[in-house]
Design goal:
It is built from six helices and eight strands. It has helices at about 15-30, 45-55, 70-80, 90-100, 105-120, 140-160, and strands at about 5-10, 35-40, 65, 85-90, 125-130, 165-170, 170-180, 180. A hairpin with a 2-residue loop joins strand 6 (about 165-170) and strand 7. It is globular and about 45 Å long.
Length: about 190
């Protein structure tokens, strides 16, 4: 069984809440434990509050692992240690940020490659949460533009592998892909 869902949405869109509902459903459906992988790093008071909010909103019996950079390694460890677990990762854009800000200039490419390879072999139910960043204005700074580009490319690569892709806006889930098939085809433009 490979249940991979990518959940996208803007800040405060309800994407994490929706993803947690999906994980609860999988937990009950398969009667399996849950491992929650948090990628956030506590850098300031405001981020500490965000982390606390997410931590407090999760069921207490879920096991939490914190991994800001080596996400593929973390997923492989979970497979080895808890092969029956339902896994949730929140959030991929924080992971991307951590990698881009790493002193190792090759960090992002190495970690992204390892992560995508890991996804092709991962057989546990997996829900990935990420911010949709490509719908706003083009950022001014080079690092900001790279972040938007890299997150967009990452989302496309994951969406290709995922059986389910959901966009959440205003707390409402909009399914984009189910059972490996896109639900909405782009209209053909006629000149």
């Amino acid at each position: 069984m490979n249940t991979l869902e990518l959940v996208l949405g803007g800040a405060r869109s309800g994407k994490s809440r929706y993803a947690e509902q999906q994980v609860r459903r999988l937990e009950q459906q398969y009667n399996r434990p849950v491992v929650y992988v948090a990628t956030a790093q506590c850098g300031d008071g405001e981020m500490s509050e965000r982390i606390r909010y997410h931590r407090d909103s999760r069921p207490q019996h879920w096991h939490t692992r914190e991994e800001p950079i080596r996400l593929a390694d973390c997923l492989q460890q979970i497979t080895a240690q808890q092969p029956q677990a339902v896994v949730m990762v929140d959030c991929l854009t924080l992971w991307l940020t951590n990698c881009l800000l790493s002193e190792d200039k090759e960090c992002w490419q190495q970690q992204k490659t390892a992560f995508l390879r890991c996804l092709t072999q991962f057989t546990q139910p997996l829900v990935l949460v990420s911010n949709e960043t490509g719908q706003g204005v083009v950022p001014m700074g080079e690092l900001s533009r790279r972040f938007v580009d890299e997150s967009g490319w990452l989302h496309q690569a994951i969406a290709e592998l995922a059986g389910q892709v959901t966009l959440v806006s205003a707390g409402l889930p909009l399914p984009l892909k189910r059972n490996g098939q896109p639900l909405h085809q782009a209209a053909t433009l006629i000149d």
